[in-house]
Write a structure and sequence with these properties.
This is Transmembrane protein 236. The chain has about 350 residues and is mainly α. The protein is built from 13 helices and no strands.
Length: about 350
């Protein structure tokens, strides 16, 4: 009988392969239906596009996806030296990029007065598959059987309390010298040293806790009947954080589904900038590069495009996202650049 790690590996690989294939099939099938409607029921173009989708998925699977998965499982260290997330990078290039390209091509199909709700289902499916692939890659180290902790090959960093023993203080073991004055001074020094050491230990613990892969907060730490409300689990928080991470990109692509925007030239910057923002998934979630990359590839370009869309088409996008992009850009410039100037280092400054 296969082990649980093998079963989990098979489930993850099947899910990722499904997320790779299904969006491509759906997007190209909708495009084929659009071509059939434009050609007044001609099925030749429809089946040609369907055959192209099957050929593309087969080629990508045999020559790119399967070899990549094989080499990652055999030589994961080599790939992690190049990028922390090679699978997500491959998915963005092999699935998200062609799907966005087909959506852009569909916006230029001459449909006359016929408007197909072409973008809602395919775009939602493409972004949902991308989010799920990101979740699968991030949740791999965790156990999914309900037990707290990580898999056996992942260890939690940080101190572990194994044994308690009462130890007398150092000052109690020192002799009293010169009527106790030197002893008091030594005791004060020892207390200050122990306090500073304790603060350094706590600081080191916090650093190790921050840099750890995950920490599980069990409901056993809190007494009383409503213990379930105190429980925290990084596996649950991982799902929430991943969807919030992609929320701005989802809203930008939704704007492209508005009819006036979809059939105008503004659809190109919308989808191009949305795809550029998806490249952030290649960076590890805890990487220091993620903040600056998010501002340069998402918030700043999205701010310019959203203001332009509001000026040209009206309120096709909520102003909440405009204020979000503006606030993120301003705070990034202030905290990362302006606070480094000498004028902000004076003691009189707030």
């Amino acid at each position: 009988m296969p082990s649980t790690s093998t079963v989990k590996l098979i489930v993850y690989e099947v899910l990722q392969f499904a997320f790779l294939c299904v969006p491509i099939f759906v997007v190209l099938e909708r495009f084929a239906s659009l071509m059939r409607a434009v050609r007044s029921g001609d099925t030749t173009a429809y089946w040609l596009v369907v055959a192209v989708s099957i050929a593309y998925v087969t080629t990508v699977t045999l020559f790119v996806w399967a070899p990549l998965k094989f080499f990652i499982l055999k030589s994961r260290r080599f790939f992690t030296d190049i990028t922390n997330r090679p699978v997500t990078l491959a998915y963005v290039l092999l699935s998200t990029l062609p799907c966005f390209a087909i959506l852009l091509a569909s916006s230029k199909v001459d449909t006359g007065n016929f408007f197909d709700v072409f973008t809602e289902l395919p775009v939602s499916l493409v972004l949902f598959a991308l989010i799920c692939v990101d979740i699968v890659e991030r949740i791999r180290p965790y156990r999914l059987r309900g037990q707290d902790g990580l898999d056996s090959d992942f260890e939690l960093s940080g101190p572990v309390l194994t044994h308690l023993e009462q130890v007398s203080s150092v000052s109690a073991q020192l002799p009293q010298v010169n009527g106790g004055e030197n002893g008091a001074a030594v005791s004060l020094e020892v207390r200050s040293m122990s306090a500073s050491g304790r603060w350094r230990a706590m600081d080191g613990y916090n650093m190790s806790r921050t840099s750890s892969t995950a920490y599980l907060y069990s409901s056993r730490s809190h007494s009383g009947s409503p213990r379930i409300f105190w429980a925290r689990d990084p596996r649950h928080e991982l799902f929430l954080d991943t969807f919030l991470f992609w929320l701005d990109t989802v809203e930008m692509v939704r704007v492209g589904g508005v009819r006036e925007v979809f059939y105008s030239a503004w659809i190109f910057p919308v989808y191009i900038l949305a795809f550029i923002s998806t490249l952030r998934v290649v960076v590890a979630p805890n990487s220091p590069l993620l903040a600056s990359l998010g501002v340069l590839s998402q918030d700043l370009p999205f701010l310019v495009v959203r203001i332009s869309l509001v000026v040209v088409f009206g309120y096709v996008t909520p102003l909440l996202y405009v204020m979000k992009n503006l606030l993120v850009c301003l705070t990034f410039v202030y905290f990362m650049l302006l606070t480094k100037l000498k004028v902000f280092s004076r003691g009189s400054m707030f």
